[in-house]
């Protein structure tokens, strides 16, 4: 019913997460009719990103070089390595300005339902990274979801077996959080993981 | 914080309707990490569609030729011209299999709030199309929204002044619709526009 190149575009837009046939159609017409410059920019930046970006040889995040700028920075504390699931999580950690070590980005998590086991995560690269003779502590900052927890558990066993000091970011009441509005599971954990008060 | 080509991609994805900074970021990582083939296909089909598609010289919809296949088809009744807002609306009409005439696609509607007046709609092309000496009736099938109604009203005045027979698709209770679940405005219109029963 549509010209081939239009159907091809609508079909290709469906590869975007959360975009079904209806939105793909709406997006295609919007781009062609109202934002041809934006469409041109998007097409070019997609093809450019695909050729320009690759995993950093050290931290596994996307970079245009062999090793990313952060991994090369002499200002970072190379003895502390923080493991996160995604580049977005790494950016969230950076925004806290509470961590000055280096990162390793898993680019995923252990998720048997999605066919993502330890093998698919390519953990050899992490183990090799940790064995650089400089890293002294690995901080596991995967999500506190079931999958993130399973990933953290798996990694901690793996790393502890190699004699590496492993820690996990704390879980509890959010800063500014009122007990009344915190779910029971979080509250129970906060109670179990209570800390002694000094002085 | 991110490499330039990654930031450029995230930024470009924001040109898609309904995609904000958070989804743009999620989409970029998804494409780069999980669907590079899809990303390649999307980039290529965007650039290809931009060069391949243009407005049909007769009906104004997207086509790869000077005049689209439907406009050239000898099987269609060229005396009847149906005016719709978008190519999607045209496809909806086609799916009814209740119309065998030709179309004119406005690629928009009169919408003063969006700065879309009659001038922006390029109605000269429609008037020229209607003046081919073959068209006998123009059926206005714009939406029954305020904007679609305003567009139909404007067009009907314009076309009637040129001595062309103009009609509007009917409004009323949807087929299978129960009065209990139809909004009061629709019901009121269905009452006002009631038809005499033959026989
Ligand atoms: Zn790196
Ligand atoms: Zn046409």
TrEMBL record, chains A, B:
CDD domains: TOPRIM_recR
Alphabetized Pfam families for the sequence: RecR_C, RecR_HhH, RecR_ZnF, Toprim_4
Zinc finger feature spans (C4-type): 56-71
Keyword Ribosomal protein: no
Keywords: DNA damage, DNA recombination, DNA repair, Metal-binding, Zinc, Zinc-finger
Positions of the Toprim domain: 79-174
Gene3D superfamilies from the UniProt entry: 3.40.1360.10, 6.10.250.240, RecR Domain 1 (1.10.8.420)
UniProt GO MF annotations: DNA binding; zinc ion binding
HAMAP family in the cross-refs: RecR (MF_00017)
Family (UniProt): Belongs to the RecR family.
Record function comment: May play a role in DNA repair. It seems to be involved in an RecBC-independent recombinational process of DNA repair. It may act with RecF and RecO.
Name of the protein in its database record: Recombination protein RecR
Organism: Oryzomicrobium terrae
């Amino acid at each position: 019913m549509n010209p081939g190149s239009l159907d091809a575009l609508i079909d290709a837009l469906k590869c975007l997460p959360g975009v079904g046939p209806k939105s793909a159609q709406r997006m295609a017409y919007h781009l062609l009719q109202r934002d041809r410059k934006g469409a041109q920019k998007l097409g070019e930046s997609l093809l450019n990103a695909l050729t320009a970006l690759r995993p950093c040889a050290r931290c596994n995040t996307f970079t245009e070089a062999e090793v990313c700028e952060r991994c090369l920075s002499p200002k970072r504390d190379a003895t502390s390595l923080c493991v996160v699931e995604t580049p977005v999580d790494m950016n969230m950690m950076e925004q806290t300005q509470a961590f000055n070590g280096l990162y390793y980005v898993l680019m995923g998590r252990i998720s048997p339902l999605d066919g993502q086991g330890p093998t698919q995560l390519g953990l050899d690269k992490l183990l090799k990274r940790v064995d650089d003779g400089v890293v002294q502590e690995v901080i596991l900052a995967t999500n506190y979801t079931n999958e993130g927890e399973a990933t953290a558990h798996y990694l901690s066993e793996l790393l502890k077996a190699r004699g590496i000091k492993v820690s996990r970011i704390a879980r509890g009441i959010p800063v500014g959080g009122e007990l009344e509005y915190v779910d029971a599971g979080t509250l129970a954990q906060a109670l179990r993981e209570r800390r002694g008060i000094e002085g």
